[in-house]
Amino acid sequence: MPNRVRRGRFITVEGGEGAGKSTQAARLAETLERRGIATLVTREPGGTPEAERIRALLLDPVGAGWEAATEVLLYFAGRVENVAKTVEPALAEGRIVICDRFADSTLAYQGYGADVPLAAIRAVADAALGGFRPDLTLILDIDPALGLARTRSRSAASDRYESRPLDYHRRVRDGFLEIAADAPARCVVVDAAQPADRVADAVLAAVTARFAELAGGTASK
Ligand code: T5A
Predict the structure, then answer these.
(1) Ligand 1 neighbourhood includes 112 CB (under 6 angstroms)
(2) Could you give the angle at the alpha carbon of 191 between the alpha carbons of 187 and 192, nearest 5°?
(3) 42 lines ligand 1 (CB under 6 A)
(4) Is any ligand 1 atom within 6 A of the Cβ of residue 151?
(5) Is 69 exposed, middle or buried (0-12, 13-18, 19+ CB in 10 A)?
(6) Which H or E run includes 100?
(7) pLDDT over 70, % of the chain
(8) In angstroms, rounded to a whole number, what is the distance separating the alpha carbons of residues 147 and 145?
(9) Which of 49, 51, 100, 202 sees the fewest Cβ atoms within 10 Å?
(10) Which residue numbers in the chain have pLDDT < 70?
């Protein structure tokens, strides 16, 4: 593991399918950059060439696909790469790192959604990341039926998670809300059913409420 010198801030964006995570991660980065604040957007699964290979394994598996416990290990394998090679170096430079999904997605999808014991996922997280956590997590909350309708209007093809039953996505949503309730100092729940501009306002309000230095445009790098 690289050293844990952290000067920037690590913000994760979480939520179910079609909640608008990618849209809001990009918009937040643009707003902060306009204020002269150096940012970096990354995503999971992915974030490095190596982890993008793991993403392809996860999202386009052969045969019947992975056991949920195998998925946990693959997601954390990619996460170790993303944290070590992309996130931590950018934090050490003082950047605001915005990550589209992170460890809470594994708890929500593989834990609450697919019944891998939460304690087992937390043990893997501790072993893989050694206590590395986001400074702020924005949980974009949306009724799964609405989120899935958004992804379907974008593309007719569904990936292997999108095509799961609505009940699965409801468990994932409830999981994210429980994660937020368990960690109120780290997590902020944002109503993601609103128009994108309103969500962006709420996201920025949550970020500047947590990090006052980002409100006025003080350059972090
Ligand atoms: N996964 C991931 C796990 O199971 N465990 C894990 O540990 C991790 C890290 C990743 C999959 O991997 C699973 C979960 C996922 O299923 P992905 O391709 O990265 O797959 O897909 P998602 O992260 O789910 O991203 P999506 O593309 O589905 O949704 P986003 O990023 O939430 O939404 P976005 O911004 O792309 O927007 C979707 C559509 O909605 C519109 C956009 O224009 C776009 O068309 N939109 C809005 N429309 C109306 N109002 C708004 N407020 C809108 N915001 C966006």
Answers:
(1) no
(2) 105
(3) no
(4) yes
(5) middle
(6) strand 96-100
(7) 93
(8) 6
(9) 49
(10) 1-6, 156-159, 217-221
